[in-house]
Structures are given as C-alpha cells and as structure tokens.
Amino acid sequence: MSRMSAEEYREFLMEGTRTAMLATVRKDGRPHVAPIWFVMDGEDIIFGTGRNTVKGHALRREGRVALSVDDPTPPFAFVMIEGNVSYKDCADAPEEGLEWATRIAARYVGEDRAEAFGRRNAVAGELLVRLTPSKVVSQNDMLA
C-alpha cells in the first residue's frame, strides 16, 4: 500500500467516470452522503447541486464537506478529501454555470450530450460548487 502523490491522486480522480460520495451534515447533526459528478480545476473539485437539496442546504449552512472516490477493483485505491466550499447560484453566474455544467456533462454523458445537459443544469436554483481541499488522504495498491 502506498500513498499517492498530488499528481497521482488528481489523475486518479479524473480517470474515467468515477463518481464521488459527498458527505455533509444535516441541520440536526445527522450525516448525509450522496453521489456527485465532478471535474477538477487545479486542486479544486467542481460540482453542481440543487439549492434546495439536502446537500445544497448543508453546504450553504456549514461550508465544510468531505468526499471519497474509490476504485473497487483489485488492487484497490481511494482518495478522501476534506475541505471548504464556496458556491454561486447559476442564476447569478449563468455563463460560468453553463461552462462547468457542460464540462461535467462531457465527462459523464459524453460530448454529444454535454451541451444539452449543461443547459438543463445551469439554471436558477442550481448551485455551482467549488471544494477547496484542506486535507487529502490517498492510498494506492492496497493489496501490496
């Protein structure tokens, strides 16, 4: 088992269509975990969510999240990130929202459907979220 370098974990995160599991805390303290689609912008993780979803409420209230991405096939690997989030409603930043929603769509649904998906998701009430890592834990080749 070995720790990934910063370059290795960024490459791992952007490989294929891996989804992340995003952890937030509800107002009453209960945990909440939900899958997200994402892309990276340098060290930051970019994703979208509805303003009025459980995770949307939680990230606006707390501003802190954790996420985990794993490779469930041998020899197994994972990256876990903790950090702070900033966000914009896509109504307040329509061009930026469309740009990132389209990039995310291209990764997960393909270039041919990316524009339609981006337009569907870069609307009022949808948040464009930026996670800036404060802690990263990564392991590669967990069978070694």
Uncertain runs: none
CATH superfamily: Electron Transport, Fmn-binding Protein, Chain A
Distance between the termini: 5 Å
Kindly name the structural category.
alpha+beta
Largest sheet: 7 strands, antiparallel
Content of β-strand: 35-45%
The tally of helices reads 4
Q: Could you explain the architecture of this structure?
A:
The protein is globular and about 50 Å long. A 7-stranded antiparallel sheet has the order 2-1-5-6-7-4-3. A hairpin with a 5-residue loop joins strand 1 (20-25) and strand 2 (31-36). The chain has 4 helices and 7 strands. The termini are close together. The chain has one domain (6-139): Pnp Oxidase, Chain A. The protein has helices at residues 6-14, 54-62, 94-109, 111-121, and strands spanning 20-25, 31-36, 39-41, 44-50, 64-71, 77-89, 126-139. Helix 3 (94-109) packs antiparallel against helix 4 (111-121). By secondary structure, the chain is an alpha+beta fold. The model has no long low-confidence stretch (mean pLDDT 96).
Short overview:
With 144 residues, the chain is α+β, with helices and mostly antiparallel strands.
